[in-house]
Amino acid sequence: MNCLRRRLLAALVALAATQGSAMAADPPRVVHGSADAYAADGVALAWGVLRGASEAATVVVVRIVADPAAFAFLSVVGRDPFTAREQPLLARAPVAGSVELRVPRAHFADFPRTELRFDGPAAAPGASATALVVYYAGVPDTTPEFIAADKLDAYLADRLARVRATAGGPPR
């Protein structure tokens, strides 16, 4: 009888531990980005297109700025919403100020959904603890196109400054 009690107690402790760890991880906040810029506490991003000599050489550029105190890691994937296939666009990496994602525009035909996944500061290097997902269904309609890289660069810097100002100034 004593052995049975110990087994039952051990099973209850194990169950409580798994329930506690499952409840400890909050689900990520999921936000649908719709315009060519987005800002919230600790993160800002802006989209632009750099036209190439051909459609195959045209590149979509997303400049992402995140506060490492709010988001320790960033990863970006392209998804096909019909098959659920994913293609990594940016491997999970520590946030270090500004990141520029460059993707051929043709990519969006096969993987129209883009998910920017921000992990919170408590995330360990080997484990994902996604706190925020900003997703887009294709390239935003409001995304401007440029033929000169310097014009795109100036636009992205200005657009990020403006969207940060309207969102209360995150991140620096």
Describe the structure.
The protein is 26% helix and 38% strand. A hairpin with a 6-residue loop joins strand 5 and strand 6. The strands form two sheets. A five-stranded mixed sheet has the order 1-9-8-5-6. Strands 2, 3, 4, 7 and 10 form a five-stranded mixed sheet that branches. The chain is of the alpha+beta class and 172 residues long. The radius of gyration is 21 Å and the shape is globular. It contains three helices and ten strands; from the N terminus they run H-E-E-E-E-E-E-E-H-E-E-E-H. About 10% of the residues have low confidence.
Strand order in space, largest sheet: 1-9-8-5-6
Could you say which structural class the secondary elements and strand pairing correspond to?
alpha+beta
Number of strands: 10
Largest sheet: 5 strands, mixed
Helix content: 25-40%
- The quaternary structure here is single chain
Keywords, separated by commas or semicolons:
172 residues; alpha+beta; five-stranded mixed β-sheet; 3 helices; 10 strands
Topology (elements, then pairings):
Layout: H1 2-24, E1 29-32, E2 37-40, E3 43-50, E4 59-66, E5 73-79, E6 86-94, E7 97-104, H2 107-110, E8 113-119, E9 130-137, E10 145-146, H3 149-166
Parallel strand pairs: 1-9, 3-10
Antiparallel strand pairs: 2-3, 3-4, 4-7, 5-6, 5-8, 8-9
In short:
Helix content is 26%, strand content 38%. It has three helices and ten strands.
